[in-house]
Amino acid sequence: MSQPGKNPPHPASGRAGVAHESWRLLGIMSEFVEAAERLGNIRPAVSMFGGSRVPAGHPYFILAEKIARQLSDAGFSVISGGGPGMMEAFNKGAYFGKSPAVGLNIELPREQFPNSYQDISLSFRHFFARKVAFVRYATAYVVLPGGFGTLDELLEALTLVQTGKIPRMPIILVHAPFWSGLMDWLRNTLAAEGTISIEDVDLIQVIDEPEHVVKAVLTHYETRGFRRADAELGIFLDL
Predict the structure, then answer these.
(1) 50: CB partners within 8 A, 6+ apart
(2) Which residue of 113, 159, 163, 167 shows the fewest CB atoms closer than 10 Å?
(3) What angle do CA 163, 169, 170 make, to 5 degrees?
(4) What average pLDDT does range 14-19 have in this prediction?
(5) For the purposes of burial, counting CB atoms within 10 Å of the CB of 14, is it exposed (0-12), middle (13-18) or buried (19 or more)?
(6) Is the dihedral of CA 85, 89, 91, 96 positive or negative?
(7) How far is CA 210 from the centre of its chain?
(8) Does residue 237 register a pLDDT over 70?
(9) In whole angstroms, what is the distance from residue 43 CA to residue 75 CA?
C-alpha cells in the first residue's frame, strides 16, 4: 500500500527499469569475459600507472618509456590504461620491446583516446571491470607520477594486498621526490596514529632507476616463481 500523498510507481516503468539493469549487468559480464579470453596468456605482466596529462618529451614520459622497454625485454607484458600521457609512454616502451603492450582503454567524456602502441587493446565502459583486469593479470604494480586516477589504482592495490584479497606482489613507486610527501604521511600520520600498521608501509618500494625496478620484480619471484598456486587462483576468484 502506498503512503498517503505519494504516487505508487508505475508497473511498466518498474519493469523497464529492471530490464535496463539486467542488460547493463550483461554488458559488465561481457567485459569480464572478453578480458579473460584476451589476457589469459599474457603473464607474466606488470601493470603500470601514471598521469595522462604528461606530454611526450617530459622527463617523466622518457623515464616511463625506458622502464616499460626494460620490463618488456625482460619478458613482462606491460599493461597500461591505453590512453595518452604516461599510458602512451608505457605502451610505447613495451611495443618496441620483446613482450606485448596491452591497453585497457576506458570510455570517458573527455581526455581518453587510445594511443597507437597497443599489441592488445581492450575497451571498457565500466571502471571496476577495468580495475579487476589491471590487478587480475599483474605480477607487479609500477606507479609513476600522476593524479587522482594514479592514486586510486595505487590505493586499490595496497588495500587488496593488505586485506589478503590478492597475494602480495611488488608495488613500486618510481621517482622518490614526487612520492616523498605521501610516504612521510603514511609513516608519520597514518601509521603513527594507528590507522595502518607500520608493516603496511613496507608493502611499498620506492625506486628510481629502471634497471632496479626490473630487478625488484624479478627478485620477488626468484623463489616462488610466476605460476600461481591453486590457493592464489582461488583468492583471485573472490575479487
Answers:
(1) 60, 64, 85, 86, 87, 89, 90, 143, 144, 145, 146, 150
(2) 163
(3) 125
(4) 69
(5) exposed
(6) positive
(7) 19
(8) no
(9) 9
Supply 113's cell numbers: 583516446
Short-list 198, 87, 80, CA closest to 141: 80
Quote the crossing angle between the two packed helices 86-95 and 59-73, to the nearest 10°.
Answer: 30
Q: Which of 127, 128, 153 is nearest to 140 (CA)?
A: 153
Question: Higher model confidence: residue 94 or residue 25?
Answer: 94
Q: Residue 205's closest CA among 239, 165, 166, 161?
A: 161
d(CA 168, CA 52): 27
Domains and CATH numbers, the chain: 13-237 (3.40.50.450)
pLDDT tens for residues 124-168?
A: 988 888 999 999 999 999 999 999 999 999 999 999 999 999 999
Q: Which of 174, 216, 195, 190 is nearest to 62 (CA)?
A: 174
The cell for 32 is 569480464
pLDDT at residue number 233: 47
- Give the pLDDT band of residue 112 (cuts 50, 70, 90): low
pLDDT in tens, 38-89: 898 888 999 999 999 999 999 999 999 999 999 999 999 999 999 999 999 9
pLDDT attached to residue 111: 55
